[in-house]
Specification:
With 271 residues, the protein is mainly beta. Helix content is 3%, strand content 58%.
C-alpha cells in the first residue's frame, strides 16, 4: 500500500464533506489509488508527468444526530446596539445635537422561545447616554443647589477661547424584558416591554481651543443624573436588523436638582 504524508492524512480526516484539490483536466492519469479510513474515502491520482493530486469525500453514510427536544432558551453572550439620545426642548435644558449624542449599549441577550411565534427576550448590560449641546458655548456646572447651564465665559478666564464641544453623559447597568411576536420564519418581529437601570457613573465635558491647542475640561461627577432609570421599549425587526425605541418614564435629573425632562433613545441593532 502506498504511503501518504501524515500531514495530508490529518488534514483530510478533519476536512469538510466534499473537498478536493483542483486538478488539471489536460493531464493524463497514470495511476489511481483509493483509501477508506474511518468512514472517509481518499483518492490519490498520479499523472504521467510525475505530479499527484488528491481528492477526498466523506462516506455517504455519515452519522447524524437529531435532538427531539431542542432547548427553548437561546443565549448570546455579547451584542451591541447604537443609537441617538434626545430630550424634550423648552424644558429648561440646552437643546441637544442628535449627531454626537450617542446611545451605546453592550449587553448579553437571552431568548425564551415559548412558542414558535411568541418569544420573551431579556437584555442585561451597560448603556451609555451622551447629550451633546447644540450650542458648544453652554457648559453644564454642578452646584450645591443643582445642575446649572452657563456661558463658557463664566468658566474660562481667557476670552480668546473658542468653544467646540459641550456635553454631559451617564452610564447605567440595565435589565430589559421584551415580549415579542414573530412570523413563522422569524424574518419579521415586533415587541414591547420595559427596562430598569442603575447608574454607574457620569461626567461633564467641555472642549475649547486656545492658541491653536485643544483644551478639555472634565467634571467627573454624576452631574445629578438620576440613580435609577426605568422606561418602556419597543422593537421592530426585519431579517437581521432590529430598530429600537427607548423612552424613560423617570426624569433624567434627580428631583429638584435639574430640569424635569425624560431621555429618549432610538437606534439600530444588527443581530
Amino acid at each position: 500500500m502506498r504511503k501518504l504524508n501524515l500531514t495530508i492524512l490529518v488534514s483530510l480526516f478533519f476536512s469538510g464533506s466534499l473537498l478536493s484539490q483542483t486538478t488539471d483536466s489536460t493531464k493524463v492519469e497514470n495511476q489511481t489509488t483509493e483509501f477508506t479510513i474511518f468512514g472517509k474515502s481518499w483518492k490519490v491520482i498520479k499523472y504521467e508527468d510525475g505530479t499527484k493530486s488528491y481528492e477526498w469525500e466523506t462516506d455517504k453514510e455519515e452519522y447524524s444526530h437529531s435532538d427531539k427536544h431542542p432547548s427553548k432558551f437561546h443565549y448570546n453572550f455579547l451584542e451591541s446596539e447604537v443609537g441617538i439620545n434626545v430630550w424634550p426642548v423648552d424644558k429648561g435644558a440646552p437643546k441637544v445635537k442628535p449627531w454626537g449624542s450617542w446611545y451605546v449599549a453592550l449587553q448579553s441577550e437571552g431568548t425564551w422561545k415559548a412558542t414558535k411565534n411568541f418569544h420573551l427576550k431579556s437584555y442585561l448590560g451597560v448603556n451609555w447616554y451622551n447629550f451633546k449641546f447644540e450650542d458648544p458655548g453652554l457648559v453644564a456646572i454642578k452646584t450645591p443647589g443643582g445642575i446649572d447651564f452657563v456661558d463658557y465665559t463664566d468658566v474660562v478666564e481667557n476670552q480668546a477661547a473658542i468653544p467646540t464641544k459641550s456635553k454631559i453623559s451617564a452610564s447605567y447597568a440595565t435589565l430589559t424584558l421584551i415580549p415579542s411576536l414573530q412570523t413563522n420564519d422569524g424574518k419579521m418581529r415586533i415587541g414591547a416591554g420595559g427596562y430598569l437601570g442603575y447608574r454607574l457613573g457620569g461626567r461633564g465635558k467641555f472642549v475649547y481651543e486656545l492658541d491653536g491647542e485643544k483644551v478639555k475640561d472634565f467634571t467627573k461627577s454624576n452631574m445629578y443624573a438620576a440613580n435609577f432609570r426605568y422606561g418602556v421599549r419597543g422593537e421592530i425587526g426585519i431579517a437581521d436588523v432590529t430598530l429600537f425605541f427607548n423612552y424613560d418614564l423617570n426624569n433624567f435629573f434627580e428631583d429638584q436638582k435639574g430640569p424635569e425632562l425624560q431621555a429618549i433613545s432610538f437606534g439600530v441593532r444588527i443581530n
